[in-house]
Design a protein that fits this description.
The complex is a heterodimer of chains A (about 110) and B (about 550). Chain A is mainly alpha-helical and about 110 residues long. Chain A has one domain: Winged helix-like DNA-binding domain superfamily/Winged helix DNA-binding domain (Arc Repressor Mutant, subunit A, Orthogonal Bundle). Chain A is about 60% helix and about 10% strand. Chain A contains four helices and two strands, in the order αααββα. Chain A has a two-stranded antiparallel ribbon. In chain A, a hairpin with a 7-residue loop joins β1 and β2. The two termini of chain A are about 20 Å apart. Chain B has about 550 residues and is of the alpha+beta class. Chain B has three domains: about 110 residues, no CATH class; about 130 residues, no CATH class; about 190 residues, no CATH class. Chain B contains 18 helices and 19 strands. In chain B, the strands form four sheets. Chain B has a six-stranded antiparallel β-sheet. Chain B has a six-stranded mixed β-sheet with strand order 13-14-7-17-18-19, with no helix packed on it. The longest helix of chain B has about 50 residues. Classes of the chains: A mainly alpha (about 110), B alpha+beta (about 550). Chains A and B meet through α1 and α3 of A and α2, α3 and α4 of B.
Chain lengths: ~110, ~550
């Protein structure tokens, strides 16, 4: 077993959930999402985010609109679709159950 | 001064330096390669590009208008390397095509390096690592190694060396490098082409430099650049020559190693210097046991030889492989171990040398009177035993034989050695009868030891009436070892009696004094009389004219 691999696998599972959570309070463009994720040390490099956003968008959980930027190229502002909101709620429940279950298991030792 | 390129990234115009542009371009195409098979690749790419554009825009200002190398570097650091994308974001579609992506990525990444493959190993992943370096199925290499393990353990040694010097691929990046760009003709062609383009560019730069140089100082810089350039070319050629030498080194090292192992462990006969005057048909084991004192284990010699000769050979192979595969890792432990082992070998051999040497410290001589019956006539005919079996010059397949000039040793079995040749002299007898004396000598660690050995020498003759048949050899016991055993035969001839020397006697007679001053080779096939002045020829017409001094 490779520890790095396992760590990466664990993170991978929660990344999508975290992106959705970040977007739950409104519209954001990728750099803002990255800022928050970086603060939480969930991702280290920005490149990681783009394929994930693409996938969530293709699955209909996210939508975006273009907005002109004063300083650079136009930005994509992402927000949750109704399906995405529903999805996020279910993930939150699952997450809480999971945290509880994991904590129980760990503390039993 | 650097040239800049105008670049359009997500609709924003940048002035970017040439090398920075190259780097960015390479980076983007690498990412593109990563998402080769994914849906929405173009969209992801444009997202990434616009993010990069955004970041680059923060780096330029009114006073600093061009995008520089370190700007691109910091952008890439923020965006991350493509292999990091795979590690963290790995969506299913990405996962499915991981292998393809890695390949695409590594194609851009460039040179392949050799690593041990921890994911595909039987022992240490050496075979699979080398196989992926050269792109073939590791099974063949494994089979070759398995077989070579039985060639006196040579393969095992080589495998251990390889395990030590080839690093294990630990990180993903190393694993990618391990499978990196294929080493094949296309690639070499490509590399050469790139090299050539680079060369053209440098030549052009160099030309520009020269043209634009307006003062002496500039010319000097140009001259320096030219010198550097020539140095580069020369260095490259040296490197290629180095690789070839490294390969030859490895090859010779392995060949000699197999030879050494085969000589020592195969107990095979080494046949060298196969000329009439010098030849060796003995195994190292037999030679050593013929010389070593009985209480000194032969393993001393074996281990000593392996270490003393083997370690330099292994270092040769080690160095060669390291150079060939550009392995930079330095291993002090290996270096010290090798040095210590080599010194151990040296010490062992020196010890053996001293032990053997002390066995030669004293010499002893014994006289043995060989009884002969007096001939009925006045003449004693001297001849050698005629059978080929007794002739040391003839080599039989089942004999072990060593020959240095006149000194010859043959071993028919393990119990005794047959040595040649004894030396024979003829002198005046003090009595009225023919007498035969064998003077035997040998060496030992003291007088007693040497005397014991000398007495153990066995020399025999055969007499048939007035004919004496001499042996061309004497025998020693194998347990006595070779200790400079020698035999001198002294035939005492009374005054006025005759001896006849046959042609074959030439082999053993040595510097016999005679009135005619004839050489040994001229003394044979003739009859001699013993006078008060010494031996005198009685059928030597014309000989005196030739050889009288």
């Amino acid at each position: 077993m490779n520890i790095e691999n396992t760590k990466a696998q664990m993170k991978k599972g929660v990344l999508e959930f975290c992106i959705l959570s970040v977007l739950s309070d409104g519209e954001h463009y990728p750099s803002e999402i990255i800022e928050k994720m970086k603060e939480a040390k969930l991702i280290v490099v920005e490149g990681t985010l783009y394929p994930l956003l693409m996938r969530l968008k293709n699955d209909g959980l996210l939508s975006y609109r273009w907005e002109e930027s004063l300083s650079g190229p136009p930005r994509k502002y992402y927000k949750l679709t109704p399906v995405g909101e529903q999805f996020l709620k279910e993930l939150e429940i699952t997450w809480n159950d999971l945290v509880e279950a994991v904590n129980k298991t760990i503390n039993k030792q | 001064m650097n040239r800049t390129i105008t670049m359009n990234l997500s609709g924003i115009i940048f002035h970017i330096e040439e090398d920075a542009y190259d780097m960015l371009n390479k980076y983007l195409s690498t990412i593109k390669g990563y998402f080769k098979d994914s849906d929405g690749r173009d969209e992801i790419m444009s997202d990434i590009e616009s993010r990069i554009a955004e970041m680059l825009q923060e780096k330029v200002s009114k006073t600093k208008q061009a995008v520089l190398m370190n700007d691109v570097e910091s952008v890439i650091a923020v965006m991350g390397k493509p292999e990091d994308f795979a590690g963290e974001s790995g969506t299913t579609e990405n996962k499915e095509s991981t292998a393809g992506e890695n390949k695409t990525y590594s194609e851009n990444k460039g040179r392949r390096r050799v690593f041990r493959d921890p994911d595909d190993k039987v022992i240490g992943g050496v075979c699979s690592g080398i196989a992926s370096y050269f792109d073939f199925d590791p099974i063949w290499l494994r089979a070759a190694f398995a077989i070579s393990f039985f060639v006196f353990g040579t393969g095992l040694l080589l495998y251990i060396i390889l395990i030590i010097i080839i690093p294990k691929a630990k990180t993903t990046a190393e694993k990618l490098e391990m499978r990196g760009e294929k080493v094949d003709v296309n690639n070499i062609g490509k590399a050469v082409n790139e090299e050539f383009e680079d060369f053209k560019k440098r030549m052009k730069n160099f030309g520009d430099e020269v043209k634009s140089s307006e003062n002496k100082e500039r010319i000097r810089t140009a001259a320096e650049k030219f010198r550097d350039f020539v140095g580069d070319v020369f260095f490259n050629m040296l490197q290629i020559a180095g690789k070839i030498f490294a390969f030859i080194f490895i090859f010779i090292g392995i060949a000699l190693m197999i030879g050494l192992m085969a000589t020592i462990f195969g107990r095979g006969t080494i046949s060298i210097f196969d000329s009439p005057m010098t030849s060796i048909h003995f195994s190292i084991y037999e030679l050593s046991s013929a010389v070593l004192p009985n209480d000194l284990p032969i393993e001393f010699v074996v281990i000593g030889l392996i270490l003393f000769i083997g370690i330099p050979l292994l270092s040769m192979i080690y160095g060669g492989i390291k150079y060939l595969f550009r392995i930079k890792q330095k291993n002090k432990i290996v270096k010290y171990t090798a040095n210590i082992l080599w010194l151990t070998g040296l010490v062992l051999l020196t010890y053996v040398g001293i032990q053997v040497g002390t066995d030669f410290s004293e010499q002893a001589t014994t006289k043995q009177i060989i009884s002969i019956s007096q001939p009925i006539g006045n003449t004693l005919y001297l001849d050698m035993k005629p059978s080929a079996e007794d002739d040391l010059d003839v080599t039989y397949m089942h004999h072990r034989k060593v020959r240095f000039g006149d000194w010859t040793m043959i071993s028919k079995d393990d119990k005794s050695f047959r040595l040649g040749y004894p030396e024979m002299n003829i002198v005046k007898s003090e009595t009225d009868s023919f007498e035969l004396v064998a003077i035997k000598s040998a060496q030992g660690f003291d007088k007693k030891d040497a005397t014991y050995r000398a007495k153990n020498i066995n020399y025999a003759i055969t007499q048939m009436d007035s004919i004496i048949l001499f042996n061309s050899y004497f025998d020693i016991e194998a347990l006595d070892k070779l200790r400079a055993q020698n035999v001198k035969i002294l035939l005492k001839v009374p005054v006025n009696k005759f001896v006849y020397l046959s042609k074959r006697m030439e082999k053993i007679i040595f510097d016999i004094d005679n009135v005619n001053d004839a050489l040994d080779s001229d003394m044979v096939n003739r009859k001699w009389i013993m006078t008060n002045r010494g031996l005198e020829c009685i059928d030597c017409e014309g000989l005196e004219n030739v050889h009288k001094h």
